[in-house]
Amino acid sequence: MTEEWIGFIIWCLAGIFFIGMGIYAAFSQKPKVMGFWANAEMFEVTDRKRYNRAMAKLFCIFGMVFILLGLPLLAEDHSAWIILSIVGAMAESIAAMVVYVVVIEKKYRRR
């Protein structure tokens, strides 16, 4: 097995971890903030089941896109395409935070 495949497999394991967090959120009995913010208090939600489903979708999509962003790791010649993986992962993380705050938290936070 080449170094490229080992790196890609490790990258995929990280993506699978995020998908696993999404599956965990889907079946959770409590509303989960799922580690977006360190030491954050969970706000009171209006509909726990729909909130957890939204979090599950967010994390599963995040994990799948994260895995796709790792494809440049398979390049044979240690190409500069790895920059797409790094910048893409940063942009995806920021986009996930924005979706959480602007869409999910706004929709399910009890006022």
What does this structure look like?
By secondary structure, the protein is mainly α. Helix content is 66%, strand content 0%. It contains three helices and no strands. It has helices at residues 3-26, 48-69, 82-108. Helix 1 (3-26) runs antiparallel to helix 2 (48-69). The protein is elongated. It starts with a helix and ends with a helix.
Which properties best describe this structure?
about 110 residues, mainly alpha
Gross morphology is elongated
Number of helices: 3
Q: What is the alpha-carbon Rg in Å? A: 16 Å
Give the DSSP E fraction (strand runs of 2 or more residues): under 5%
Say what oligomer this is.
single chain
Count of strand segments = 0
Helix-strand pattern, N to C?
A: HHH
Structural class comes to mainly alpha
Contiguous uncertain segments of 5+ residues? none
Give the biggest sheet: none
Kindly, what is the distance between the CA atoms of the first and last residues, rounded to a whole number of angstroms?
A: 54 Å
Helix content: 55-70%
A few lines on this structure:
The chain has about 110 residues and is mainly α. Helix content is about 65%, strand content about 0%.
Secondary structure elements and their pairing?
Blueprint: H1 3-26, H2 48-69, H3 82-108
Helix pairs in contact: 1-2, 2-3
